[in-house]
Each structure stands twice: as C-alpha cells, then as structure tokens.
C-alpha cells in the first residue's frame, strides 16, 4: 500500500517514505517515532505545496490611515496608563492580578460564534495544508472556544497593539514545521491590519522573510530541526532518516542571524523521536533507538535537553545578543488516536477535551518540562549579563485541543487516508499561541 503510494507520488517524498518503512521494520520503535515521522514528512510536503501556491501579495497604500490609527492607538495606550495612575489602589490591584495570574493554567470556555480572526478569504497566506475548510472540514465549532486563565482574562489578539510593539523590530521563529505553523498564524493575524511583503524565500522554502513596510517590521522563519548541528546519514545516496547530532555545536543557520534579532521564538521537539547518534567534542558518546553493542543507549530526553542547553548557552555567551528577547514556545503535542500516522491513526474530534482527560504522565508533558526547566535555568544565568528569556507555555492548553488538527483535511491527494494530527488548522486554536505571545510581549 505504502509502496504503491510512493510510486505514484513525487520523487520528492520517495526517499523519506522508503526510509520510514525500513526503519519501522528494523527498529520497531513503537510509540514515539510516528509523531515525528509525520512532522518530518509533512514538512517536506508543506514545502512542496508552498512552492506551488500562488502568493498574490501587494502592499496597499495605507500609510496615511496608518499614521492616524497609530496616533489613536498611542492615545488609547496613554489614556489607559493615566487611568491606572489616577487610582493607585486599583492600579496596584491590577498589578497584583497580573503578577499572580498564570496565563498558562486555565480552561477552554465557549466563545461567541464566528470568533475566529480570519478566514481563507481575509488571509491569502494560509498554506493549503492548513486550510482545513478548503480541504473539506465541515465542523467549525472548534473555532468557538477561548482560553480562560484561572486568575485573569487573556485579551483577544489586537494586531494594532502587536505591530505597535514591534515597530522597527526584527522577529524570527526558529525551529521545525510547527514553528512555521505558528509564524503562519501570526502572519494571518497581522495581515488583517497590514498586508506584508514577501521579501525572501530560499530554494527549499525553509527560510522565509516577510516585511511590513508601514511598521518597518520584519518577520522571519529560520529552519532548524534540532537547534544543534544534526546531519542525516546518507545510504546509497538517499537519506536514511538516521541522524548524527553534535550535542555541543549550535546550528549556525539560526545562530548566525540571531544577534540581529530583537525577538526570537524558539520551539523544537518533533524531530527528536528518531534514531540519533550522539556526539560530543567530536566523539560518539551514545545513541538513541540504536541498541547496538558497546554503544550507550540514551532516551530522547537526553539529546533534547542538551540541544536546549547548547542553544541557550550560545545565547547567554553571545555579547551581541543582549538586545534579543528570547521566547520559548513549549512543545505542541500531536494527537493521533488508535494508531499512528502510518497505521490509521486519526484525530477527528470536534471540541476540546477536559483537563481531567489529559495524561500528564505523557512524554509530551515531559518534553515541555525539560523545555521549561532549561529556560528557567537560562533566565537565571542571563540575568547576570542582561539577556532576557520568556516562556510561552502552550502545552497544557494544547493537550486539550485534539480537535485543532487538520486530520484528513490537509489536502494531499497522494496521501489520502493518512492524517495530519501534528500541525494545526488555520484559523484554529493555534492562533491562541499568538494571544499568549502578545500578552508575554506586553509584560516583557
Ligand atoms: C479606586 O479603586 C478602588 C477599588 O477599585 C475604589 O474603591 C475607589 O473608589 C477608587 N477611587 C477612585 C478615586 O476612583
Ligand atoms: C475557502 O473555503 C471555502 C470553503 O469553506 C472554499 O470553498 C474556497 O475555495 C476557499 N477559498 C480559498 C481561496 O481558499
Ligand atoms: C547499497 O547498495 C548496494 C549495491 O547496490 C547494496 O548491496 C546495499 O544493500 C545497499 N545498502 C543499503 C543499506 O540499502
Ligand atoms: C564490546 O566491547 C568488548 C570489551 O571491550 C569487546 O570485547 C567486544 O568485542 C566489543 N563488541 C563489539 C561488537 O564491538
Ligand atoms: C472518527 O474517525 C473514525 C475512524 O475513521 C470513525 O470511526 C469515527 O466515527 C469518527 N468520529 C467522528 C466523530 O467523526
């Protein structure tokens, strides 16, 4: 079946497929691999689709309107702060509330119908593979939920406030195809206010730059599978899906441009669920999923933690990076039910699950904990020399959103019957990541 699919699909994917099936047979890595395989595989497919999707971009001459709106916005922000000053007891109360409020703990509550920020007609950059309605998704109730932190309200995303904060700045999303998904959501949210220019795309569409001329704001994605150096082993000229990781070497693809950034949103994790040979100081120190004699066998958490440590110690050791605010968006879980991507797993729920139904012993939650521990450590270290780190912790909320994935509605005609339960529909609960990010930015 799979072999047949391979033959009829583009050669672009053949190698990947081949190595997946082979690997599955050889190593029988039952539980974790499929999530990543999906993201790897879908990442390749995504880039394929993006290459062929038309991007009819133009910049509207909105400048005058823009200036007026900005003045209004300035006034609004000013009035807000004045009101706060006028009543000092309510101000301190508000500050108390903000301080004690954990934005990342809460629940999904019903929101007004049609509460989504954009549609496929108001945002032209939704990638086909995330355009679930276009691909036949019929239920839309999954859009009518909002995140309610226990102690406070999470404001709706306001593109004017966001663009006001980032005026004249550069922001980059660093990581895998789910990081890209996050950036694409932000792109749609912001394009309701200003249509960005598509200014750079590399040949594989893994590094992409958008520019918002009216706000002099640059938004990029920098592709990095592992944050550290990770090379795929080639076998007979094709990728083996086996990687060599240099645990102590940061990936220059993002590290080189990093000092130039004002904001970096780092996220990662889905690529680590595979066979990895681990190297430190140029020597192989062990392996994940290898079970080779005389080679130390590690769990995934070891290289994952090392990758974040290496990334953060690069940032903290980089004098020129002191102006960059580093945010970590924690792990976004996949939700395959009754199987994996290649064994009939699916995700066709139509509403959130309750927090009580979430398994906090899952590996998804462990990955998140590693990321939180490492950013807290980096934050302490960074205080000494003026580096800033912030957390955008989406994991708890997203563990409840099995309904937010494209499932079978990801528009791949060669891969009918396979589900994408790793990426997120647009619009959809992924847009909430940017509500959180804006709340964090406003505090930072
Ligand atoms: C200030 O806020 C407190 C608490 O909300 C309220 O009781 C008080 O009347 C307010 N004072 C003024 C001058 O508005
Ligand atoms: C938008 O979605 C509708 C279905 O909801 C679909 O018919 C239409 O083709 C889509 N348009 C674009 C431009 O994606
Ligand atoms: C590589 O190619 C050689 C010659 O065609 C073959 O004997 C060998 O089995 C191949 N190795 C793998 C891992 O496919
Ligand atoms: C493993 O190490 C032992 C002891 O050093 C050695 O005798 C044995 O040959 C090694 N096995 C392999 C497969 O390298
Ligand atoms: C979800 O998909 C499974 C497998 O295709 C099917 O058995 C089930 O009825 C579906 N559930 C809903 C709510 O559509």
How would you describe the shape?
globular
Strand content: 15-25%
| Secondary structure: helix percent | 25-40%
DSSP summary: helix tally: 12
Report the count of strand segments.
14
Largest sheet: 7 strands, mixed
CA(first)-CA(last) distance: 52 Å
CATH-defined fold name: Rossmann fold
Can you tell me about this structure?
This protein has 444 residues and is an alpha/beta fold. It has helices spanning 2-8, 11-27, 33-52, 63-86, 88-100, 159-165, 177-191, 252-255, 301-316, 363-383, 395-399, 431-443; strands spanning 106-110, 145-149, 170-175, 197-201, 208-212, 217-223, 228-235, 238-250, 263-266, 276-280, 283-288, 297-298, 325-329, 388-392. The N and C termini lie far apart (52 Å). Mean pLDDT is 83; it is low at 1-66.
Structural topology:
Layout: H1 2-8, H2 11-27, H3 33-52, H4 63-86, H5 88-100, E1 106-110, E2 145-149, H6 159-165, E3 170-175, H7 177-191, E4 197-201, E5 208-212, E6 217-223, E7 228-235, E8 238-250, H8 252-255, E9 263-266, E10 276-280, E11 283-288, E12 297-298, H9 301-316, E13 325-329, H10 363-383, E14 388-392, H11 395-399, H12 431-443
Parallel strand pairs: 3-6, 3-9, 8-10, 9-13, 11-12, 13-14
Antiparallel strand pairs: 1-2, 4-5, 5-6, 7-8, 10-11
Helix pairs in contact: 1-2, 2-3, 9-10
Bound molecules: 2-acetamido-2-deoxy-beta-D-glucopyranose (NAG) (5 copies).
Residues 293-294 line the site of one 2-acetamido-2-deoxy-beta-D-glucopyranose.
